[in-house]
Amino acid sequence: MEAIVVFDIDGVIRDVGGSYRRALADTVEHFTQGAYRPSPEDIDALKAEGLWNNDWEASQELLYRYFEAQGRSREATATNPIRLDYDELVAFFQSRYRGTDPTHWTGYICQEPLLLRPAYLEQLTQAGILWGFFSGATTGSARYILEQRLGLQSPVLVAMEDAPGKPDPTGLLQTVRLLHGSDAAPVLYVGDTVADMHTIAKVRQVQPDRPWFAVGVLPPHVQKTEVNKQAYIATLQQAGAQVVYDNVQELTVEAIEKLVRG
């Protein structure tokens, strides 16, 4: 079967509920001097807007909104402006996520549960399905998971430093080109956020003649209650997901064939 599958990483390949999201909450709490720590629901609500795939920018936006609720302004010319140093914010976030040692990472990234086994990817390869990764994570973070934790050998990856952030489809198109598949091969993009689903909507405008499929995966943190799970499924579907799975490995060779052949 001729098909290409491109995977997001965070929430699809690894569980970031206790890492990226925890670092995001830590950052907001730190820069509000402990006055506000966003809940998982707060973060999900922001992500549902489809604009905040980058967790550094998401942290900054939650801080802006908190301070605006206190009557301050993000306009520099205002009488009571919000003063945030983005580089300082990123450095604090990374100190939590990666740790303070730049050589040997000791932060939350070391505790991320994996959501698939390498054998799953081997099954795709044996079926003739090409696969790669397009993620908003940094290259270092993404390769740490893919190569050190999963043991993959130089997988095709387009990360934060390589392309504009989602939902811009540039990185998805780059990934597909790097996989050297047929120009007519259908492409499935597997993600866990509204921005991921919107990426497919935008790439269809760029390459309308190629079949593009939006596959949603539920991140573990939303599966703790049935109410949250169903609400998240509805959010992904409204954003364009054609199918939604509890775990990425449910996207089997048979499921890919069924989706592609309609």
Q: How large is the radius of gyration?
A: 19 Å
Structural class computed from helices and strand pairing: alpha/beta
Please list the strands of the largest sheet in the order they lie side by side.
3-2-1-4-5-6
Mean pLDDT: 95
Termini separation (Å)?
14 Å
Helix content bin: 40-55%
**H and E string:** EHHHHHEHEHEHEHEH
The oligomeric state of the chains shown is single chain
Q: How many strands, what sense, and barrel or not for the largest sheet?
A: 6 strands, parallel
The poorly predicted ranges are none
Q: Strand share of the residues?
A: 5-15%
What would the principal axes of the Cα set say about the shape? globular
- Count of helices? 10
Structure notes:
- By secondary structure, this protein is α/β, with parallel strands linked by helices.
- It contains ten helices and six strands.
- A six-stranded parallel sheet has the order 3-2-1-4-5-6, sandwiched between helices.
- β2, α6 and β3 form a beta-alpha-beta unit.
- α1 runs parallel beside α3 and α1 packs across α4.
- The longest helix has 15 residues.
Topology:
Elements: E1 4-7, H1 20-31, H2 40-47, H3 55-69, H4 86-97, H5 118-126, E2 130-134, H6 139-149, E3 157-158, H7 170-178, E4 187-191, H8 194-206, E5 212-217, H9 226-238, E6 243-245, H10 253-261
Parallel strand pairs: 1-2, 1-4, 2-3, 4-5, 5-6
Helix pairs in contact: 1-3, 1-4
In short:
This protein has 262 residues and is an alpha/beta fold. The protein has helices spanning 20-31, 40-47, 55-69, 86-97, 118-126, 139-149, 170-178, 194-206, 226-238, 253-261, and strands at 4-7, 130-134, 157-158, 187-191, 212-217, 243-245. The two termini are 14 Å apart.
